[in-house]
Amino acid sequence: MSYYPSELVSLFFCPVCSPPAFLVAPTTLRCGHTVCSTHTSSSVCPVPTCSTTQRQGFTPSIPPSSRIEFFAAPHSSEDVSAASHSQPRLDVRINNIMQLFRPTHLGERDTSSYSDDESDRDDSGTRSQTLTPRGQPRQSAQATTPLDSSRPINSAAEFDKALTAELTCEICLMLLYQPVTTPCQHTFCSKCLQKSLDHSMLCPLCRQDLPGFAYFQEHSHNKVLLSLLLKAYANDYASRGEAIENAERHARLDTPIFVCQLSFPGMPTLLHFFEPRYRLMLRRCLESPSPTFGMIMPPRAAPLLGHGATAGTEFGTMHEIRSVQMLADGRSMVQTWGIHRFRILERDSLDGYMIGRVERIDDYDDDLGEWAAEEVRTLIPSSSVVPLSVSRPPPPTVLTLTMPARSPQNVTRWSIFSPLDSSQQSQSTEALMAACHLFLSQLCEGTAPWVVQRLNHTYGPQPSDDDPGAFSFWMGMVLPIDEHEKAKLLPVKSVRLRLRMVVGWIEQLNSNWWFSRGCIVI
């Protein structure tokens, strides 16, 4: 550190006292200003230049180019009132640093840098009492000195060592970064405190109950400590910020993965983030240039024999964050949109949640040749599809479905033709989509209107026939079949093969007695 105490001491002058004088019993407010404790008689910051519109603290630093709609959590007036009107306490960290600047601790050096602020002041300046570390007033003009002041610091190296120790976060044990001071007057890195509050709403040091999570959304950084860090440790502070950014964004495994449920591209998904690890993941996603994350299904309760514990979880859907509604306790409701599929090539964990290296999966031209037969044999069980070729085209299959109705005449009879053509190895994409539309029309005729409404709301509106790829995913999602069965659509790169799988599932549904009698669970 190239600065001597005389060049730093002005940072610890009270901005309210007139004339400016050394802080006595410093207390840090929610706005980030540190003043003498006697100036905190009300919940309003006494600093004339204080701006109450600053949004720092726990509010994510969303890039300006982001299209995310972010809605902060509603404020709890009870938490704010309780924290604002509590008895003023001594800012432990600033008080400890101030002791390093005092003549009794600095020997004979820099005594000219101090005014007569150690003496009692009148009403225009300050008060005649200070606070102990526990927040109890006592009659003394000098703040409590928890350090051993009998041993003076006689060199810049010793001062630098002592100051560095006071600017170390007790959670990460590294240099403070974006310091935030709690109502109990303990200071931590902003991100470290966030992680701690994800697990418990108690102070990591004194275990005192802290206000709700929403209280810290606009809780500004400690201005005195931040100025000290930028002036005395500018290079170290910048390196600390770069290290945090590199650790979160520039790792080889750079894709956060949310283990939750099945999803497909082109569909909206409403998610509830409440686990501490995923709350942290969401904050990092919001602050990234690309606010996306992958989502996969949880593994089966009983893994498939010979396929390992991760069988069926190699494929997922990448989600783009559209809007975030924060809740007062730190949870959030997140609206996302599936944008494309991916395959996990390598996976690991970061702070409790999964990260991975993934490759994107896109559809290619539907040219059902030899590769199609190989893909069917590899990815699709034989029970899920109709064979690619037959020696003789079978006759059309007629399916009779009886829907619940008031009159016995309300019986719908319709046909689904086999997805095999007499002149081709497989039926055309248009014919397969027509079979799906027949199924949907039958479903709408025999189902209560609210069920259809729920389908459209949950999975989004039905895609246009001009986009058969999106239609195949939407059709697969609305079918009342097992989720792990639906997940077999994810690795298939052929739209026509996916539609053939869907039609195969439709035929299996209509062959079941519970479905043919109108018993449908949505």
From TrEMBL:
Domain Lon N-terminal: 243-510
Domain of life per record: Eukaryota
Domain RING-type, residue spans: 169-207
InterPro entries xrefs: Lon_prtase_N, Lon_prtase_N_sf, PUA-like_sf, Znf_RING, Znf_RING/FYVE/PHD, Znf_RING_CS
Keyword Secreted included in the entry's annotation: no
Composition-biased stretches (Polar residues): 129-153
UniProt keyword terms in alphabetical order: Metal-binding, Zinc, Zinc-finger
Entry protein name: RING-type E3 ubiquitin transferase
Species for this entry: Pisolithus microcarpus 441
Lineage of producing organism: Eukaryota, Fungi, Dikarya, Basidiomycota, Agaricomycotina
